[in-house]
Automatic annotation (TrEMBL):
Superkingdom of the source species: Bacteria
InterPro entries noted in UniProt: Cys_rich_CWC
Source organism (scientific name): Arcicella aurantiaca
Identification of the protein by name: Cysteine-rich CWC
């Protein structure tokens, strides 16, 4: 089984490496999110992107939307 999978972000199309089998080493774990930010992003990804992973750039943009 592959540890790291090349994937494309369903929001922007950027290619990124998903480390789903080693999530603690995944780049997305570098982001610090509040509970409100996590819930907002989870709602968006579940309904708009079928729960698929987003790239860090998009996660940061969505995090910024919560503060707006």
């Amino acid at each position: 089984m592959e540890k790291h999978v090349a994937d494309s972000c369903p929001r922007c199309g950027e290619i990124f490496t998903c480390k789903v089998n080693n999530v603690l080493q995944c780049d997305c774990m570098k982001l610090v999110l509040t509970k409100a930010e996590t819930e907002y992003i989870a709602d968006i990804t579940e309904w708009e992107y079928d729960g698929n992973c987003l790239c860090n750039k998009c996660l940061i943009e969505l995090k910024g939307e919560v503060k707006s």
